[in-house]
Amino acid sequence: MIVPLTYIWRSLWTRRLTTVLTLGGIALVAFVFAAVLMLAHGLEETLIETGSEDNVIALRRSATSELVSQIDRDGANVLLSQPEIAIGQNGKAFASTETYIIINLGKKQTNDMGNIVVRGISPQATDLRPQLKISDGRMFEFGKDEIIVGKSINAKFAGADIGQRIKFGDDWWTVVGVFEAAGTAFESEIWGDVEQFMPAFGRPVFSTVTARLKEKNGFAALKTRMENDPRTQYLDLKIERTYYQEQSKLMSDFIKILGLIVTIIFSIGAVIGAAITMYAAVANRTREIGTFRALGFSRASVYIAFLVEAIFISIIGGSVGIALASIMSFFSFSTTNFSSFSELAFGFRISLDIIGGTLFFSLVMGICGGFFPAVRATRLKIIDSLRAAS
């Protein structure tokens, strides 16, 4: 016979104080676990969604990021003349030659300095990145000392409001617009004319070249041809989305490892709390255990009953932790991206995988906390249980 689930539920309700305390401990661990995964997932999504499967990005071979990449004009021209590169409405290669530079700006609230990406772009850059929308002001005019700033920069850094001027390089730059980019890393950047930025920073070369492919399956042929051409052998071509995925790995792995260490420490406490609760339940219910055994319930039935109680607590606690963690989706986080050493704003993002993983982790905590107390309950002899409770 199997112990009725109604009995198990009533038992939890009778011991509701200890049940709530144990549930709270598991919920706290589940919250931390889910929040860490959401933070890492938010970082990955922010960077990965920055890139497009339709675009190819060229960097200097062995360059780990745009910051340390250099491409001369001859190499850029050779790349853009290839048949795999799409042609824009202006009859030229559908591409953007760009510079990627780090500057310092003071934060509005703390006056601390932060590293900000300044990206010089070509006129077709905004068509290559359709997620970019001007949310306030206007687009800058090419050939002028004008810039537009990402939404995150506008919100957090001093001097980044429309009409204000920012000094970097050898010039002053007027902010004429604020842009959004669907929550991608571009929102943490400042954009302007590449041909104005290069002399201002004394840079004779580009950092990268981003271009639209005519067809996705043309990438392999393009990459092979560039590697075999003496003029472009120093170039490393990647699908833009793949490049940004690689950029997210270092920071994402760091968050996950650090979060896992904290979660393991917390989970040990939660498992111990669950075990203490279940041991106390066994000690206080020796008569019930003896009565069940006298009525014909097997040791396995008693074992399952106590284990199911622990599982109930863990699943409910995990669900509460997930619900609390989901509130974090309304908050954003800003930190230094280890790959580019620049300020990057991103948010907590939940997914079905995170929900499933958190529930599974909570279930494991419940089973670990309930296993030995359940075994203890099955070892109680019928006569000793009834005699101890009389």
Q: What brief labels describe this structure?
A:
50% helix, alpha+beta, 390 residues, 12 strands, 20% strand
Walk me through this protein's architecture.
This protein has 390 residues and is α+β, with helices and mostly antiparallel strands. It has two domains: 187 residues, no CATH class; 172 residues, no CATH class. It contains twelve helices and twelve strands. Strand 2 and strand 3 form a beta hairpin. The chain starts with a helix and ends with a helix. The model has no long low-confidence stretch (mean pLDDT 84).
Largest sheet: 10 strands, mixed
Supply the number of helical segments. 12
Strand content: 15-25%
Q: Calculate Rg over CA atoms.
A: 30 Å
Distance between the termini: 25 Å
**Record field, number of beta strands:** 12
The helix fraction, in percent, is 40-55%
H/E topology pattern: HHEHEEHEEHEEEHEHEHHHEEHH
- Judging from the principal axes of the Cα atoms, what is the shape? elongated
Low-confidence stretches: none
Structural class: alpha+beta
Compute the average pLDDT: 84
Number of domains: 2
